[in-house]
Amino acid sequence: MRRSRQRDAILAVVKGTDCHPTADWVYREARKQIPGLSLGTVYRNLRVLCELGEMRSYEGSGGVAHYDGYAATHHHFRCDRCGEMQDIEVPVDCVMDRKVAECTGLDVRYHVLEFRGLCHECCAGASREGTTGENERDEMRGGTR
Amino acid sequence: MRRSRQRDAILAVVKGTDCHPTADWVYREARKQIPGLSLGTVYRNLRVLCELGEMRSYEGSGGVAHYDGYAATHHHFRCDRCGEMQDIEVPVDCVMDRKVAECTGLDVRYHVLEFRGLCHECCAGASREGTTGENERDEMRGGTR
DNA sequence: GTAAATGCAAAGAATTTGCTAGCCC
DNA sequence: GGGCTAGCAAATTCTTTGCATTTAC
Q1: Is pLDDT at B61 greater than 80 in this prediction?
Q2: Residues 72-131, chain A: which have Cβ within 8 Å of B?
């Protein structure tokens, strides 16, 4: 594991923000410092830095990866309809991690928690259309079973 | 929202398995029943069925979407190094969902919880190489800060 | 009859990979 | 000097979309 200007810059960018940036965002930010930086290098380093425990990654809507330098660990809510994500203020429960580690013998370091459902807009839209999800489900089941 | 042979088949496939299949897996299974089925249709329906609350989706390693027909709701562990996923037996805590719903006013229906760290194999591999993640991190920080 | 769903294929987006050259230790 | 890294670009992989046709209600 060797140092490089690029790797340091990428790590600094991720650690230096409170948002949870995508690879592309990191790329554009880091290029301000290192204009010749290539996107492939960003991907390679993000992956390596995650393996090393320097940062964390999680997939947002559409399978796009986001990265988090632990600056502000928290959870998210994601809409099942439009994919919108928002931050949720719930205390992070590390006890769970330890419990799972004990039961499984795995090296559990943290967890990713994402709440799901419908956002305000989609919820309003759904009930306007008469498809709240719950009703629709019963309807379909009634027909099938 | 109209019924179709294809949609019924896709839903049945996802509900009929305990694994958390990918779109491609669902496609191949459903084609056994409906040979002319197209992949686009599978994607379209998986998305719609998730919006309706019929099933759930989450991104696995590499940003590949997996689907879950609630047959057995549980959590996962995912290795930060090799991406391997395994099921974790921890009781699902719905109280959290209600709490978040109250605080935010969102229509929270469930949550996705994923533990992260290193799997047995990668953990052994990492310590053999002298890079457990923890050590490496200190090393890098020592140099940077 | 009409709107919604399918099939097909092409387009898109994100990420990975192969290869050569350069830089770190 | 040897090997890890970067750059660049091509390749992969997964997913979405446009459009003509078919199907459900």
Answers
A1: no
A2: 77, 80-81, 88-90, 96-97, 99-101, 103-120, 123, 131
**Tens-place pLDDT, residues A3-30:** 999 999 999 999 999 888 999 999 999 9
User: CA of A124, closest CA in chain B: separation in Å?
Assistant: 10
* CA–C1' nearest nucleotide, residue B39: C7
Q: How far apart are CA B102 and CA B133, in angstroms?
A: 38
Q: Alpha carbon of B31 to those of A69, B10, B13: distances in Å?
A: 43, 9, 10
Residue B140: list chain A partners with CB under 8 A. 3, 11, 52, 54
Give the pLDDT score at A136: 39
Full-model pTM: 0.81
Separation of A81 CA and C20 C1' (Å): 46
- Which protein residue's Cα is closest to nucleotide C25 at C1'? A2
List CB contacts of A70: < 8 A, sequence separation 6 or more.
Answer: A15, A55, A56
